[in-house]
Give the backbone structure.
Amino acid sequence: MKTESCFVDEAVEMLLNLRKAVPLVHCLTNDVVVNYVANCLLAIGAAPAMIPDKNEAAQFAAVAGALLVNVGTITEPQAEAMRAAVESANNAGRPWVLDPVAVGVLSLRTSLANELKMKKPSLIRGNASEIIALAGMEATGRGVDSTASMDAAHDAAVSLARETGATVLATGPVDIVVTEGRQTVRISNGTPMMTRVTGVGCAQGAIGAALVSVSADTHSAGVATALLMAVAGDIALENAVRPGSFQIALLDALDALDENEIRQRAKISL
């Protein structure tokens, strides 16, 4: 069994490895936040690429360090591109992350996410309601907003991890990371201000893709995904208390993340 300090050590190491490797992350993501997601990846030290065409997406998924599939503004052509990119990534042995935005509420995204979750994602990241819906339980979300409890999300995350073999990150007031057969990790960093800025969750999924590209341990990468974004949120709130300035402060905080900040601020429990 790992200790809390072990997960912190691994998060620090992964961040350093990410910045050394500068992994190329292929993002098929929410149209509303493409620019912000790209900037968050640049801020933390990765290299973003947004290539939506079906044929090019499949080609690029085979050479990128990792792939993000986010169904936030899904259309039928985008769904085809996502299927092609996932198949290509899997054939090339590239890790990929599924972000099931607003599943359980609308039919196209729900059907697609349920299809893709069985295609071996390394990490599934979503809010409590999204994880509950993707696990096949009763959804309680309102669009992209979660109205579900974290206790319910934990049970759903465990079920989803067992079903898919993926590490599951359920985000909320306390983030929860589970993988079948391994301990549940809870991260209590972060601020409600992160829910008042468009794109924070989407950017977290992209950062998760960057981290699984530099670590074969998807459970630890899931913990690092939650921890690094949440610590950056804590730092940003000290410099900006309104949503507009907070959005920019979060970019600066991701860039400023270092070993000392992570070790001093980490709030992890097992």
Observations:
- The chain has a mean pLDDT of 95.
- The chain has one domain: 4-269.
